[in-house]
Specification:
The complex is a heterotrimer of chains A (344), B (497) and C (327). Chain A has helices at 10-41, 48-73, 81-97, 103-126, 132-150, 183-201, 203-213, 215-220, 225-250, 262-272, 284-303, 308-333, 338-342; strands spanning 156-157, 174-176, 179-181, 253-254. Chain A has 344 residues and is mostly helical. In chain A, helix 4 (103-126) packs antiparallel against helix 5, helix 4 packs antiparallel against helix 9 and helix 6 (183-201) packs across helix 7 (203-213). Chain A is globular. By secondary structure, chain B is α/β, with parallel strands linked by helices. Helices cover 33% and strands 26% of the residues of chain B. Chain B is built from 17 helices and 24 strands. Chain B has a six-stranded mixed β-sheet with strand order 6-9-10-3-11-12, with helices on both faces. A six-stranded mixed β-sheet of chain B has the order 18-21-22-15-23-24, with helices on both faces. Chain B has a four-stranded antiparallel β-sheet with strand order 2-1-4-5, covered by helices on one side. Chain C has a domain at 38-251 and 270-275. Chain C is built from 14 helices and four strands. The chains are: A mainly alpha (344), B alpha/beta (497), C mainly alpha (327). Chains in contact: A-B, A-C, B-C.
């Protein structure tokens, strides 16, 4: 005989289920709306070359955004991804351009450096219990200096398309005859699907969400949170390494001292896409969509006469708005039943 | 009731300044529901924490399933089959029910977590227990009652032989309580031993087989539930030394003016249409079970929580209180129940903690008059008998009782005439308790008025001139001290509408 | 060792500060030995160029950290203030004194925005400061149409502001900047430790909820901490251009980390409630000497970045451990 448990009000049922699926739909609509807006307002915007442009500049941001989603879901953050990606590109690029190493090894070095810094971040946060923003702030500083030191202060021009070694650029931009194909987007989609799988269907992803939801309860369930933190930040670092390859492939040269601010676009994209700063919530598809909001803004604003500098201002405003929305969402969400227990 | 599965003998545990467990015995049989009762601070939770390895005992033995054991962490205890269903649920709100139950021991298909199989297993588990919950539902979507049932299901899935319930019905509705009891009866049939910690007398006869009582860290005795009376249990819980005898008559003058009047206060689920009056020189006790809404009422009055409706009158005049700042300006001071979280600035010293409510009073031009501050604080240190090596001592180094006195100091420094004490003697040793009671009596003699929220019945009966009892957000009754008794209060505290 | 810690003199000055001072001395000696011509008055003045603007930034952020918050926007805000007020000078020909004031006002406005969002809108401080960091970079860029701005030299018209750093008397230079910085530090210390505002800031940093329940308008005071920080960043801008002349839009980040590092090294706790102006001062000196010394040895600025990063990690780790012990 099964008891009839009193019914949960249908509305609250829907609102959470709809949240992640629903949130993605909302962001997708915003992407479409923004794109439509710029198309209508500026005839020059409506060109294939513009779409290519949007995509080209989106690769490195999307990659760091996908990566940083993982530390964000644990309730932390990774600020080193911006200067980090420049650093890894400089290190790998230096070996390729000035030491004559083959490009494919240079690419591996990029990713490896990212993973190592990611490991350091994970250790600082998970084992030494430093606050994540401070720990990654320090690695941000250090990668800024490191990149410059390794490249001896020079800008690094990775091999251009057409030269020996320039093949790596075609990973992202494939030219077949007259057709220019944004191949990079395909990889992004594949990686999105892959990391989505990792987040939702592997132990690592599951425990990352668990830590973000309730660190103490996760610990008490016998899970070694130290390893999970390291995993989350290594993922972030590795993707920063991948992003460094994308960046090198799109831009002619990489200069030390740049990169500060990229992390904001990555984190902003993730938050717009539904990742909560308090942890426990997030989807990779959402992050992808969120990044596109920022990329379309970035590319589109110059078309309506606003200089690129406004993009920084807009990014800042968008970030605050996204967080304010996230906060108000959370206030509703955490009026949850467990708080009833805390009342006397 | 089957054979004995657990024997705890001579358990002793001391923390700095507190003898938490004093040679305690406890026994549990298979298929038995054994209640563990006692006032707040009696040692029930501590005993369970020793059992499950959260605390290490100083002395004594634990024999479980025929073997002597000593667990060093809750996971060990869990693996051995002893599980606690906590009051504050330890759950992962963002994950689904099935994911919560199997956290840490997921079914895998290669590197992929087999969520489908987890859902099936969870459903099977729920069927065994006759619970109707959707395993794919997100934990945070469920009501408290259902979350608790998931927690129970999780315990069963660990092949638990002993389940400890810590105040399980505190936040449940009546129908949820019935469902819980059905499940417990099922568990009994499966020969699982259940330790049931509760404050609620009426549950004893309904669901328990035996009841053991603790008092002040010591084991008092065990009764068979169906043969015992409420009086028997209350006597064991409460039997005390003389200085705790209840007040027999109110000390408040017949014509004492009303200093605080609250009318129709509504603030969320736990404050529904609350109205009462506080007279000058009166100690008004607020009694009720946990979850009754007493703290919420206080916080709504002082503006710490938003209120939906309600009027507040101070000394006959209507006042607008929207923030604690307003309340303080009206002369209402609130001593919160969680000292560390809401009462103390831990990094600062005694003097700074004492004057934060009224810094304007200690200024010399734009500078703080440290000398005046210190002098004033010294005065109170002496008159309240606060034990501290020095004024500049960091407050974190003081004992609980002395910390409480410092918090009281800051409201006296402000000259608040209306004081709301929320669980004033929680976590405070016997000696300091009596000091605080003495202080409260002196304060009302000087003309101040006190609202005292307390879960300790002897305290309520000893100190109050009048008692208001709340239940599930509503005022369920009001008693004058002359007519009050533990039974009457308990009756009103469990009087659900 | 324990007895040294307990002695009254040590307690008065603060054990941490003494250790820090010794670190400073040790570092100076290290560079004196390994770098050429390190020990000279001119070298010291050069190092101080770095210390002045960094010092004002650090003093400002000390107030914010004392309330338990953080501010990453101080570097870019300083730059934005320097750029905008410099542009007013070079392109709109405003009088110099007005430009100096506008630099301070610009910093104050950013601080107000930051403080409002944190105190009244409950946005986490590190989010608002990162957002304002971006906004200020963008505003600076828009204002000057992405060009850098160069402030006048000493010998030029309007160059007298450079005397704020050092002024020539006969054959020697008087470090005016140090005098101003020290005075400001002393004022900050008095405000933090002896005034009502300072008491409220430290108290709310320790336990915001408890202070709120005690009837204090915590929102107002929390916002004021950020206003102070922004204003001091605006002042820092003046000292930056007095030493380094040219400012480019879009930069300024690295000074954030060093300012925060100086503060945390000095004993101000990231958890809020504990702050030391004196410690901040010494921390800033350490970073400045480090910066100068590394240049003197022949390594470039990037090594200093890496080393400072490591130092901050160590400092914060010690802070985390000591807080764990305290709780």
């Amino acid at each position: 005989m099964s008891r009839q448990i009193q019914n949960i009000p249908a509305s609250s049922n829907k609102s959470i289920v709809q949240r992640l699926g629903g949130q993605n739909v909302v962001v997708f609509l915003i992407v479409v709306a923004l794109f439509g807006f710029f198309c209508i307002v500026s005839p020059n915007f409506r060109r294939y070359s513009t779409i290519l442009s949007i995509l080209d500049y989106s690769y490195y941001i999307t990659l760091i955004a996908i990566g940083v989603t993982f530390p964000l879901i644990t309730g932390g953050v990774d600020l080193s991804i911006g200067t980090g990606l420049i650093c890894y590109s400089l290190i790998g690029g230096y070996l390729v351009v000035y030491q004559g190493w083959p490009v494919w090894i240079g690419m591996i070095v990029c990713v490896l450096c990212g993973a190592i810094i990611g490991f350091i971040n994970g250790f600082l946060v998970g084992t030494m219990n430093l606050p994540p923003f401070l720990a990654t702030l320090c690695t941000m500083m250090m990668t800024r200096g490191l990149g410059s030191i390794c490249s001896t202060g020079l800008g690094i021009p990775w091999p251009t398309a057409g030269t020996e070694g320039g093949w790596f650029r075609t990973i992202f931009k494939l030219n077949i005859g007259d057709m220019k194909l944004p191949l990079g987007f395909l990889w992004i989609l594949l990686l999105t699907a892959l990391m989505s799988f990792v987040l939702n269907h592997t132990k690592v992803g599951r425990y990352i969400i668990a830590i973000g939801s309730n660190k103490e309860a996760t610990r008490l369930s016998g899970i070694n949170t130290k390893y999970i933190y390291i995993a989350a930040y290594v993922i972030s670092g590795t993707f920063a390494g991948l992003a460094s390859i994308a960046y090198s492939a799109i831009f002619a040269s990489v200069y030390p001292g740049t990169g500060a601010g990229f992390e904001l676009e990555g984190i902003g994209g993730a938050i717009i896409g539904g990742v909560s700063m308090t942890g426990g919530v997030g989807s990779i598809t959402g992050t992808l969509l969120g990044v596109f909001v920022i990329c379309i803004l970035k590319t589109g604003l110059p078309f309506i006469g606003l200089q690129a500098n406004w993009q920084q201002i807009i990014t800042g405003i968008v970030l605050i708005t996204a967080v304010l929305i996230d906060l108000s969402r959370n206030v509703k969400g955490t009026k949850s039943i467990t708080t009833a227990f805390k009342k006397r | 009731m089957g054979e004995i599965i657990l024997t705890m003998k001579g358990i002793d545990k001391t923390f700095p300044g507190v003898h938490a467990l004093d040679n305690v015995d406890f026994e549990l049989c298979r298929g038995e529901v054994h209640a563990l009762m006692g006032e707040n601070g009696a040692g029930k939770s501590t005993l369970m924490k020793v059992l499950t390895g959260i605390y290490k005992k100083d002395k004594g033995t634990i024999i479980y399933d025929g073997k002597t054991v000593e667990f060093t962490n809750p996971r060990e205890a869990q693996q051995a089959g002893i599980v606690i269903v906590h009051q504050e649920l330890n759950m992962l709100g963002h994950l689904t029910v099935a994911q919560n139950i199997f956290i840490g021991r997921e079914f895998m298909k290669g590197i992929r977590i087999d969520d489908e199989r987890m859902n099936v297993e969870a459903a099977r588990l729920f069927k065994r227990l006759n619970i109707n919950i959707d395993p794919t539902e997100k934990m945070s979507n469920l009501t408290v009652g259902k979350q608790q049932m998931c927690e129970i299901a999780k315990a069963i899935s660990h092949e638990a032989k002993i389940i400890v319930f810590d105040e399980p019905t505190a936040a449940l509705t009546e129908s949820e309580v019935n469902e819980l009891f059905e499940i417990i009866r099922d568990l009994k049939k499966k020969d699982i031993g259940i330790i049931y910690i509760t404050h609620r007398m009426d549950e004893i006869k309904l669901i328990t087989d035996r009841v053991s009582v603790m008092r002040d860290g010591a084991y008092v005795g065990t009764l068979i539930s169906k043969d015992s009376t409420k009086n028997d249990i209350v006597n064991m819980m409460v039997g005390r030394v003389i200085y705790e005898e209840p007040k027999t008559e109110s000390k408040v003058a017949e014509d004492a003016p009303v200093v605080l009047k609250v009318e129709g206060l509504n603030a969320g689920k736990l404050v529904r249409d609350v109205s009462f009056e506080l007279h000058k020189g009166e100690i008004l006790g607020f009694s009720g079970l946990m979850g009754a809404g007493r703290t919420e009422t206080a916080k709504a009055i002082i503006g710490a929580d938003p209120k939906e409706s309600g009027d507040i009158y101070v000394n006959g005049k209507k006042v607008e209180i929207n923030t604690p700042e307003d309340a303080v300006k009206c002369g209402i001071g609130y001593l919160s129940e969680d000292r560390k979280r809401y009462g103390l600035m831990l990094q600062r010293n005694v003097a700074e903690n004492s004057t934060i409510t009224f810094l304007e009073n200690f200024m010399k031009g734009i500078f703080i008059d440290n000398k005046k501050e210190n002098n004033e604080t010294e005065k109170y240190i002496e008159s309240l008998a606060i034990k501290t090596p020095g004024i500049d001592q960091l407050i974190i180094n003081l004992s609980g009782g002395n910390q409480q006195k410092v918090i009281l100091t800051k409201w006296l420094v402000r000259n608040c005439d209306i004081l709301i004490f929320d669980e004033p003697t929680r976590g405070i040793d016997v000696g300091a308790k009596s000091d605080i009671y003495k202080l409260m009596n002196e304060l009302v003699k000087e003309g101040k008025s006190i609202i005292m929220i307390s879960s300790e019945l002897p305290e309520i009966l000893r100190m109050s001139d009048r008692i208001i009892v709340m239940c599930e957000g509503r005022k369920s009754g009001e008693l004058r001290i002359e007519e009050a008794s533990q039974e009457k209060i308990m009756h009103l505290a469990t009087l659900r509408n | 060792m324990y007895r040294i810690r307990q002695s009254p003199l040590v307690k008065k000055i603060g054990f941490n500060r003494i250790v820090l001072f010794l670190v400073l001395l040790a570092m100076y000696c290290f560079f004196a030995v390994f770098a050429k011509n390190f020990v000279s008055y001119n070298r010291l003045l050069s190092a101080m160029n770095y210390a002045y603007f960094l010092g004002f930034l650090s003093l400002g952020v000390t107030f914010v950290i004392a309330t338990g918050g953080i501010d990453f926007s101080i570097g870019p805000v300083m730059f934005c203030a320097a750029i905008m007020s410099g542009y007013l000078l070079t392109h709109y020909h405003w009088p110099l004194w007005l430009c100096l004031i506008s630099s301070v006002v610009i910093g104050m406005l950013y601080g107000t925005l930051n403080g409002y969002l944190v105190a009244y809108k409950s946005v986490p401080s590190f989010i608002t400061s990162m957002a304002i960091m971006q906004i200020s970079k963008g505003v600076a860029s828009v204002f000057t149409k992405a060009q850098s701005v160069s402030w006048p030299q000493l010998v030029q018209e309007n160059g007298w502001y450079r005397n704020l750093i050092k002024t020539r008397v006969g054959n020697t230079y008087i470090p005016v900047g140090m005098i101003i910085l020290l005075t400001t530090a002393i004022i900050c210390a008095i405000v933090l430790n002896k005034t009502k505002m300072g008491r409220y800031l430290l108290s709310l940093g320790s336990n915001k909820e408890a202070v709120w329940l005690s009837g204090v308008n915590v929102k107002k005071w929390e916002m004021i901490a950020y206003i102070i920080c922004g204003t001091l960043a605006g002042i820092a801008a003046i000292f930056f251009v007095a030493a380094y002349t040219t400012v480019q839009p879009g930069y300024g980040d690295q000074y954030n980390n060093e300012a925060i590092a100086g503060c945390v090294m000095g004993g101000t706790s990231m958890g809020g409630g504990l702050a030391s102006i004196g410690g901040t001062f010494i921390g800033v000196m350490i970073i400045s000497i480090l910066q100068e010394g590394i240049l003197a040895i022949g390594l470039n600025k990037n090594y200093q970045l890496v080393i400072t990063g490591i130092i901050v990690i160590v400092a914060v780790y010690l802070d985390v451990i000591s807080r764990q012990k305290r709780n």
